[in-house]
Amino acid sequence: MSPFARPIVPIALAVAAVVAGGLWLFWPGGEPCDPRVPGTDHAPADVAGGGNAVLSGKLVAGPGQPAPLDGAWPEFRGPGRTGISADPTPLARTWAAGGPRALWSVEVGEGYGGAAIAGGRVYLLDYDREQKRSALRCLSLADGREIWRYAYPLSLKRNHGMTRTVPTVAGDRVIALDSKCNVACVDAATGELRWGASLVSDYGATIPAWYAGQCPLIDGDRVILAPGGHDALLVAVDLATGKPVWKTPNPREWKMTHTSIASAEIAGRKMYVYCGTGGVIGVDAATGATLWETTDWKISIATVPSPVVLSGGRIFLSGGYNAGSVLLQIAEAGGKFTARTAYRLPPETFGATQHTPASLDAHLFGIRPNGHFVCLDEQGKLVWSSGSGGQFGLGPFLIAPGLIYALNDSGTLSLFEASTAKFNLLARAQVLTGRESWGPMALAAGRLIVRDLTKVVCLDVAAH
Length: 464
Known about the structure:
The chain is mainly beta. It has a single domain, classed as YVTN repeat-like/Quinoprotein amine dehydrogenase (Methylamine Dehydrogenase, Chain H). 1% of the residues lie in helices and 38% in strands. It starts with 57 loop residues before the first strand and ends with a strand.
């Protein structure tokens, strides 16, 4: 949610899930709704995309200034895409009756796109429905005032939320993938466009139902994307120019899902792992060549959570729509890689509908379909569940040193221990008043960025 497009009908990701959202969704009116499937929610007919809308954009400067604050959450699921913060800022373990103080808030277009934080700036992909423009916005972490925005024409219709991706920041560059698979690379400080691309026009991508939820991966001097097009399943492009470095062939014509790419090193080989519509693939990071693939994991409706890479060549996959979970074991022999299913979990044990689970201390943490937050060991055995201590719906979560922040659908934020022994709630507060609080959170310098369908809020969660 990202990613973040969890398909549902009038209630229920974002996707991600998010996205994530996922990565890691909106319906007209405020009525509760049931889980949806493609085609039942009258998705817009103009999702074919195409062209390079990014190149016709306009940069507008604002009055905001970067905050003099250290700490970063530079991409989807934070540093290393783990969902875990190592920021040394001391964090409060309890809150006053009103909850953590809101430092600032901004109104945003309907969606679930989460924030990235770097250099005292907050980056957010937004949508201006009145002007019909996609807008990559840079805000001050200090007060939320806009520093700049790069906006370009993009025709979107209400489709269970209009944004569900998180920008990626690396050095002096920001990469964003919009709802119709356009890619923008801009200067992180000034917002000036460096290059733009269309995964639809350039690689034959098909925009997923409920729009794109994939969050770009920057690895060194390359941007790794999964068009799922006839020209390339995955592609690496040069960060400086956007020019292709390699393409992964797509003979089975797997399409793009809402999940994001994970990076792994297995048997001394660096690779990228991606869940396409037809299965899971591992590709060589240097060349894009296929190292292994399996059709043991695919979800016919929507794949949202991203792969979780564990030690020993293991990859944990989970999803909604009664998919449950799977643990893949990747092995190498004689230079060849294979993937086998080590175990499969039914959805009642674990299945993450929207937000990607996190791995900590040889345990897995996440939210299963009944809304309970759970801790599993890496063999898939339940260690604890929030049970009556909390219902989290489709909301996001992240882990900080010793703590877990988890947000439910209606904007209630819970703080509990990141414990492998038991569920221990420390604090709980209503921090958002809107609905569908599904966008991924971000944490840096003791500031937690949360959002609902139409508002982004910055909370002070530092210890004082």
